[in-house]
Amino acid sequence: MKLMIDNEVPRKLRKEAVNNAVKTMNTIQSISTTAGKIQRPFEKEEMIQIADLYRDVRLQLNQMYEYLPPAEKSKYYGYFMAVTEYEKKIAEGTYNPELDGILQFDD
What we know:
Helix content: over 70%
Radius of gyration: 16 Å
Oligomer: single chain
Shape: flat
């Protein structure tokens, strides 16, 4: 995110983007910390808590995308679509690494 902010986010939006990036990284850390404390199968409430944190990260990352000018947005759009499709298959239980392969961003 730092590289994107420094090189692609318009100067007038960089401070706001940095604050959002910090918030995003803190939320990612919260997911890791929360999940790491649980040394047994997750209970429903814990799964919801982690899912809510993940939703927050997705929204924060979307905000990072919104800081970009149109040319840069189009560059990252393919990444967004690939990750969204991957997550959809995971959620539906239809992801098969042998058929779907792994996410690859270098075409």
